[in-house]
Specification:
Layout (H helix, E strand, L loop, with lengths): L16 E6 L17 E2 L2 E2 H10 L5 E7 L4 H12 L6 E5 L4 H10 L7 E6 L7 H14 L2 E7 L4 E5 L2 E6 L5 E3 L3 E4 H10 L7 H7 L4 E5 L10 H22 L4 E19 L2 E9 L7 H14 L4 H5 L11 H14 L3 E10 L9 H12 L3 E6 L5 H4 L3 E11 L1
Parallel strand pairs: 1-4, 1-6, 4-5, 7-12, 15-16
Antiparallel strand pairs: 2-3, 6-11, 7-10, 8-9, 13-14, 13-17, 15-17
Helix pairs in contact: 1-2, 5-6, 8-10
Bound molecules: cytidine-5'-triphosphate and magnesium ion.
Length: about 400
């Protein structure tokens, strides 16, 4: 068989960006007895899902797919079909005995014009297009290696045999994903001198003296390794389909959110993006702005995107002390990814203090500016009843209506 089935015709438009998709692994741990990249996730094979995200990139991008050697022709026809008019900008080459050899095969298949390459695992088939954009942009801006990474949320221990030696400080650790991006010449040089000890491309690049930075990854970019990962990926696909169906439908997208925080006199009081000097603050991992958090929950629930804890985490170190504006902007970004934006918000504050009356117009203005939509704020006490009546804490209830 020829070394490659790739197109040999010169490209009509030279491209400077490329993605190498490694898909040649056998999927031993998944245990389906077939090449992992060709295993379906909710009816569509992993490689196809990975390619769909890549072909959605705005800038012209060459795509080299490293295929299971015994499924080359089948992979070629899949790539041609998914690429459509971009088919001349693809290559399909057989993989090697390990991931390292497969990446090298992919790098050999790139046209001369490529300056920046991203190496991506087909097994991370739900990686959003935005993650490819972010990595490309960062490599082109900084000229170094760039990898997506997420904070480690489990407590991590160092062990020896069955003995636990110590807890590792997880604030200095991240878990890394793909795509990992590099200036192509430097990555080729790094692979030329690499040993087999590195487990990712950034490791190879760094061992050869390259500098690597990281950008925030995305939980959806999980690597499907085991049957449990496959089920989780299928759940993500179902959630996305539900959101897509809601977006297509003409029914108004309406959401509700509630947030409650206890007072913590040691904290400054931040509510509805305003500072209330001299008032007790609200306890929480972030700045405790219950008004912003209730609005975020209303926005996310209107889109069927879950809630603030699910999207931003309840103990993510990146959000320690974060202001409500960070979450409002993050929720708006999530909506935008699904073609949605918030059209109107109402929020009611329930509590004895702080007194809202005089600050109501300012709070409405601050929230409206952050959300780019009208916001109505109201407040009530509970006649001395319940935890708000006793002055133990404060609650906020919000509604959001979305626009498509
Ligand atoms: N990969 C590859 N060539 C290899 C081995 C792995 O292209 N010889 C690719 C896989 O297809 C996958 C990525 O590298 O997209 C990450 O590898 P991994 O998740 O370990 O996949 P498998 O090797 O297929 O799985 P397992 O280790 O369970 O056999
Ligand atoms: Mg493997």
């Amino acid at each position: 068989m020829s070394e490659s089935l790739r197109t040999t015709a010169p490209l009509a438009h030279p491209v400077s960006r490329a993605v190498v998709v490694v898909a040649a692994g056998s999927g031993t741990r998944l245990g389906m007895g077939t090449a992992k990249a060709l295993v379906p996730v909710a009816g569509v094979v992993m490689l196809e899902r990975a390619l769909e995200a890549i072909f959605a990139l705005a800038a012209p991008t060459f795509v080299a797919v490293v295929a299971p050697p015994d499924r080359l022709a089948e992979t070629q026809s899949l790539v041609t079909r998914v690429a459509g008019p971009a088919a001349p900008y693809t290559a399909v080459v057989p993989g090697g005995a390990d991931r390292h050899a497969s990446v090298e095969a992919g790098l050999r298949a790139l046209p001369q014009s490529v300056a920046t390459v991203l190496v991506h695992d087909a097994a991370r088939c739900l990686t959003p297009t935005a993650q490819f954009e972010t990595v490309f942009a960062a490599v082109e801006r900084d000229g170094c290696g760039v990898i997506p990474a997420l904070p480690v949320t489990d407590t991590v221990k160092r062990i020896a045999d069955d003995l636990v030696l110590e807890t590792v400080d997880r604030s200095a650790l991240v878990g890394v994903q793909t795509p990992q991006g590099f200036p192509v010449a430097a990555l080729r040089q790094a692979y030329a001198v690499a040993t087999r000890s590195e487990t990712d491309d950034a490791g190879v690049f760094q061992a050869a003296g390259g500098e690597v930075r990281f950008v925030p990854g995305d939980a959806d970019a999980l690597k499907i390794t085991t049957a449990w990962d496959l089920r989780r990926a299928e759940a993500i696909v179902r959630d996305r389909a539900a959101v897509a169906a809601a977006v297509d439908d003409q029914v108004p997208l309406f959401g509700i959110g509630i947030d409650v925080h206890a007072f913590d006199a040691a904290q400054p009081c931040r509510l509805g993006l305003l500072a209330f000097d001299g008032e007790p603050g609200l306890a929480g991992h972030s700045d405790g702005d219950a008004v912003s958090h209730a609005i975020v929950d209303a926005m996310l629930s209107a889109a069927g995107l879950g809630d603030i804890g699910g999207v931003f985490g309840t103990d993510d170190p990146r959000f320690a002390g974060a202001s409500g504006a960070v979450f409002l902007a993050g929720a708006a970004e999530r909506l935008a990814e699904h073609g949605l934006r918030v059209g109107r918000v109402t929020v009611q504050i329930i509590g004895k203090r702080p007194r809202i009356g005089a600050r109501r117009p300012a709070m409405q203005d601050a929230l409206a500016a952050a959300l780019d939509c009208p916001v109505a704020v109201s407040a009530t006490t509970t006649d001395g009843l319940g935890f708000t009546g006793r002055g133990e804490g404060l609650a906020a209830i919000a509604t959001a209506v979305l626009r498509r």
